Amino acid sequence: GAGVSQTPSNKVTEKGKYVELRCDPISGHTALYWYRQSLGQGPEFLIYFQGTGAADDSGLPNDRFFAVRPEGSVSTLKIQRTERGDSAVYLCASSLGRVTGELFFGEGSRLTVL
Amino acid sequence: AQTVTQSQPEMSVQEAETVTLSCTYDTSESDYYLFWYKQPPSRQMILVIRQEAYKQQNATENRFSVNFQKAAKSFSLKISDSQLGDAAMYFCAYRSGRILQGGSEKLVFGKGTKLTVNP
């Protein structure tokens, strides 16, 4: 596709359930980022991939959050035992990976935990 | 750790007028990049303008320009001839320039300023 694609656009789940959010980056982009945006806040960094490996996962809030990018393209953010505080928009971005490379963002996945 | 502060939660401007959005940041690095992103209701963050800290000249992109004051750690965005389509959330962001020396790739965002454009 022409841009970063994220699915689902909206996800409603119950507390304690497991969810997966998918990001399909722009073709050829080696760098991929996940951010979380809570209501009324700016995006907060979660994790950054360069190729298949997580180069920086310092933003993951706890061990309930995990992300993979097995083939260096599509990435999945996985959240176990969801809590109401996990409700937010999860944004994905990709770039060519150069130092000054522009980040291209998707439209995000809105997660609501009831 | 770097921080970005946007002190104006909301701003409004009349169509065709000029508005300035404020941003300050805190860092101990000398090499970095600063950005302004626009986020319309579609949620997609769109890059508006970028400034390299080593450049003294302020960046401009059509109706958008910045006032970069490195010593004051200030990075304001000026929107000239405001249009209805400029209405959105605007986020200021910081990125380390020392990535090859182990600096972080991540963007650090402020909390945003909601811009309303009145017809």
Residue share in β-strands of chain B: over 45%
Helical amount among residues of chain A, as a percent range?
under 10%
Distance between the termini of chain B: 41 Å
Tell me the CATH superfamily of chain A.
Immunoglobulins
**Total domains of chain B, how many?**
1
H/E series of chain B: EEEEEEEEEEEE
Number of domains of chain A: 1
CATH class of chain B: Mainly Beta
CATH top level of chain A is: Mainly Beta
Largest sheet of chain B: 6 strands, mixed
- The value of Rg of chain B in angstroms is 14 Å
Number of strands of chain A: 11
Structural class of chain B: mainly beta
CATH topological fold name of chain B: Immunoglobulin-like
Total DSSP helices of chain B: 0
Radius of gyration of chain A: 13 Å
> What letter string, H or E per element, gives the SSE order of chain A?
EEEEEEEEEEE
What is the secondary structure topology, with strand pairs?
The complex is a heterodimer of chains A (114) and B (119).
Chain A: E1 5-7, E2 10-13, E3 19-24, E4 31-37, E5 44-50, E6 53-56, E7 65-68, E8 75-79, E9 88-95, E10 104-105, E11 109-113
Parallel strand pairs in A: 2-11
Antiparallel strand pairs in A: 1-3, 3-8, 4-5, 4-9, 5-6, 7-8, 9-10, 9-11
Chain B: E1 3-5, E2 10-14, E3 19-21, E4 24-26, E5 32-39, E6 46-52, E7 60-61, E8 64-69, E9 74-79, E10 88-96, E11 107-109, E12 113-118
Parallel strand pairs in B: 2-12
Antiparallel strand pairs in B: 1-4, 3-9, 5-6, 5-10, 7-8, 8-9, 10-11, 10-12
